[in-house]
Amino acid sequence: MFDSNPNLIQEPVNRPFARKVPLILMHDGGGTVFSYHCLGDLSRPLYGIYNPCYHSGGTWEGGIPDMARHYVDLIKESVPRGDIIIGGWSLGGLLSVEMAHIMAGDLEHNVIGIVMIDSVYPKIMQNVSGTKIVQHAMQWNEHTRQETRDAVQRCFSEASKMVGQWTLPTWGDGNEAMTNGVTASANGNGHATQPKAPMPPPVMLLRAQEAVPVEGDGTSRVDVSRNDRLLGWGLYRDKFITQIFDIPGHHFSIFTSEDRLKAATEKIKLACYQLESKAVMRARARGL
């Protein structure tokens, strides 16, 4: 693991790239950011946030929201002010949804978008019946130390419990404009009200094209919605996913070969450029 959190993984030397909107990727269920160190050049600053409980063995009493708030604080302490893109693989993408909601309207760090790497809508299991779910068996390198295996497995178990208890944030519908705490109605009259829920930022979804190999007629938990290009997110909010990028491999093999890493790098890079372009268009529309 690394001393700094966030960990600066890529720091472009070329000035134009160094000034690109930074990408901050949250750890997967295992708590580490090792996979992000395997990515190719993204031509922008890349940070990774790992789970501090990986070493301490602690837990997040407030679950996903508690973890997300802490990671927002880490970003505010370490990442230069301005536009940012957040995201992550699997659990990392889920955390980013909660973090984007917390940071909505933040004047110092503006989340212009989310990059989810094969993050499945977590409540999809509530809509599955008659499917035999097979738990994924961790694959270890023969040189992996037992303490590492224990830490990763502990983080996975805790993450699974937290996601199961998590109530996803509620976003606004964008139909009402707020002016100094007053909601403006269609006829121009206004009435005092509570601030409306924020709108979500654009979400780019990288979707693994293959299913995880399992024995028999079972299905991996991450594949119950594999045939749905939205990976179940349509059940959360209409048009929540802005764009989908297919990538080779299955959920657990995205970062395990040179070809798949190259493909993932290219799609993440493209997704970030798309988010930057959309942010520029929104700014122009507002006359900024």
From TrEMBL:
InterPro entries linked: AB_hydrolase_fold (IPR029058), Thioesterase (IPR001031)
Annotated GO MF terms: hydrolase activity
Keywords associated with the record: Hydrolase
Residues of the Thioesterase domain: 22-126
Source organism, top-level taxon: Eukaryota
Protein name: Alpha/Beta hydrolase protein
